[in-house]
Amino acid sequence: MTNILPFATHLNDVNGIIEGAPVLIQRTLRQMVGMYHDETATQQALQETDRLVYEVYASGLPEEDGHILYCTTIIHPGTVGDEYHMTKGHYHEKRNEGEVYVGLQGEGYLLLQTEQGAVSHVPMHKGTIAYVPPHWAHRTVNVGKTPFIFFAVWAGDAGHDYATIETQGFPVLVVERDGSPVLVDNPRWQASGS
Q1: Looking at residues 175-188, what average pLDDT do you find?
Q2: Contact assessment for residue 165 and residue 108, using Cβ atoms and an 8 Å cutoff
Q3: CB neighbours (10 Å) of residue 21?
Q4: On the CB side of 12, how many CA atoms lie within 13 Å of its CA?
Q5: How many structural domains comprise the chain?
């Protein structure tokens, strides 16, 4: 394990950024092609602009056993077709690792699934503490009109498996109906091994 001296960082409670965070991931709509159900709406939106969907400010700690990693994620408001902006979503490479999310601003859903097709969702807002159990994939969705910002903490050696979600998707989609979020079945989803 890499030895690290004790340290502190500052979370800006206005914009959700961990100040001085060494790692920044920015995912634009072009990087999310194939993640949204309505591919025609995705392509039409890309003809206008390659908008920023979400960004992640991470601790930069070593991804190894013994360390606890953390980040903030900011999902910008918007839809692709009628599907809300979301993160790609992932399983942990080590499926037996959990994660904790803390809502800081805005309104969102934490969408969860198992490889066998069990589904759950947790509405999130400022002050929500949500637990992602081992073996559950997780994706966050902004269902509001302002940025949805949350803080996450997980084991350093958990890893991220994005590939399974990129090919399999989630069993449900979070779409806007009459101005409110609704869960609908994803017709393209298939359970692992099907």
Answers
A1: 93
A2: no
A3: 18
A4: 11
A5: 1
Q: What is the largest CA-CA distance in the chain?
A: 52
Instruction: Please give the single-letter amino acid code of residue 34.
Output: G
Count Cβ atoms within 10 A of the Cβ of residue 144 and give its class: 0-12 exposed, 13-18 middle, 19 or more buried.
middle
Residue 64 per-residue DSSP state:
S
| Residue-range definition of the domain harbouring residue 50 | 10-185
Give the SS3 label for residue 30: helix
Q: What is the mean pLDDT of the chain?
A: 94
Q: CB neighbours of 111 closer than 8 A, spacing ≥ 6?
A: 86, 89, 119, 120, 121, 138, 139, 140, 141, 170, 172, 174
| Alpha-carbon distance values, 64 to 12, 67, 94, 134, 178 (Å) | 27, 6, 12, 17, 45
Q: Is residue 192 part of a domain?
A: no
